[in-house]
Amino acid sequence: MAPCNILFLFLLVTFLTFATTATHSINDLSNDTMTVPQHGSGGLTPVTAPISDYIHLNCSSERSFFSSGFQSNLEDLFSFLSSEAASNNRFSIHPVNGENPSDSAFGMFMCRGDVTPDLCLQCVENAKEQLTQDCSSSQQAVIWYDECTVRYSNISFFYRADTSPAYAMPRLANVSDPKNFSRLLHLTLNNIVGQASSNDNKFATTQAKVPGSQSLYCLAQCTHDLSPSDCKTCLSAAIRELPSCCEASEGGSVLYPSCNVRYEFYPFFDSNSSSTQTPPWVPASHFSYANSTYLHHNCSSDHEPAKPAFERDLKILFSHMSSNATVANKSFYKGNVESSVNGLFMCRGDLPSLLCQQCVANATLRISSLCNSSRQAVIWFSYCMLRYSDKYFFSNMETSPSFQKLNVTTPSTHVPTQGFFNNKLSNTIEDVAEKAGDSDGKFVNKSLKLNPSQTLYALGQCTQHLSSDQCKACLESINTIIPWTRLGSVGGMVLYPNCNIRFELFQFYMTDQPPKDNPSPSRRKDKKKGHARTMILIIVVSTTSVTFFSISYYLIKRKGRKNSEVILREKCVYF
């Protein structure tokens, strides 16, 4: 066979094989993508809630074999605890006895007394998954979350107060008057020990007034299986641990397997919790700063005439700031000129470069006008913050001067939903502080659904030269200075030289992409069907056309060869 014919047949077979394979692949893809997971009578399968961050986890060094009866009993134990949490229980203990006593599994979960049943169930499920993942071969383990404690062992621990293993966690910021604060803290905690140990839920919270405008919030809880005396003994031991871990700290907690205590300067618990309560309507403050708006400034009081060199260097610094603000995706800058003046700017982390540039330009103009004879100054806009000083301040975390925009009511004003939104807001700020400190850009925003009609939006940011711990401490300190007992509505901000927090009931920050309505499963299915049909049609038409052309070409060549053979035979006969 001629080489051209061999090549032709090879190309033809290859093309037909490709068309067949591609068609089958697309049919398979269409079938896969059109299969919608079903749950029950036809709804979508619920998405499993992501595992929230746990506080601490302790796995014992004693190991069990994966094939042992203990592992099987542990799975049964976890299944039972999940079903108990799903039945709206906040506490449960359960043994799973093995044929061999060493294979028995004993377990417990305890949810915080103020959390909702849904949150309790989610916490238990998350704890179960984390324990399975990290302590898969341990015979004993305990894990603590803000909302729950889950524990298991191959030895019964029911009806006894265990204080080991333990975990203590202080806040980074300290109080200004440690001696008097320590006295107030221990008095307040000792008072709720009696309350927690004497009620059926073994749970109590309280609030105490701190000199000034702050309030102290305390919580104590024991596992329900403890007697009142054992609960009191356990909590008293936890309180005695506080001086060694958290003395002078603005917040702290001591966690035992059988009890825990915690205190903060913000309402981390819900004082009005109810498992059947519909989330209430939250009053809004409606502070709207859609565009870059001047908020506040502070000029130092040293009004001595500035030296010409300082004024010159300050102008150079402002020029450097303005030029750096034009750099794409640059929301932070710090620098100095001739060691005589130091400065920085910070734009909100969600802004495009153009808005950052405009805000920095406005800030340099206004601060030059307002603080022209000051050696130190800071100015805040809704989109940016700018600061300069004749002293080096880059290694410091500073909370003064500051600016607050909060809706503070009079002491006699009662807001019915205050406990609800104070709890949600303070915990949101705490979460923002934690995540902002760990993020590369020291910037985090977060939203939280309060009820079917309202969503809380919060934003936290630190200057990027701060360490992770400094950023967390700066934002956490904002949580402690908010006058929670007199906060009339949700909507406000607190601004420091190194960090800021803002919260509203409307989305005031920008997102990378505007939210889009997800198409229904049937629409997605039809759309993918259409894509599959189109691709199949294109491939079939293309293949048919090429095949037809190839066959035609082959027949023409064959006819030409036959004609040549006839002529050749005729010539041979002639000769």
Automatic annotation (TrEMBL):
Domain Gnk2-homologous as annotated: residue spans: 52-157, 163-268, 292-393, 402-508
Q: Which residues form the signal peptide?
A: 1-21
Keyword Membrane assigned: yes
Which spans of this chain does the record mark as coiled coil? none
User: Keywords in UniProt for this one?
Assistant: Membrane, Repeat, Signal, Transmembrane, Transmembrane helix
* Transmembrane intervals: 535-556
What Pfam family does this protein match (any one)? Answer: Stress-antifung
Q: Which PROSITE patterns match?
A: GNK2
What InterPro entries does the annotation carry?
GNK2 (IPR002902), GNK2_sf (IPR038408)
**Protein's name according to its UniProt entry:** Gnk2-homologous domain-containing protein
Species source reads Flemingia macrophylla
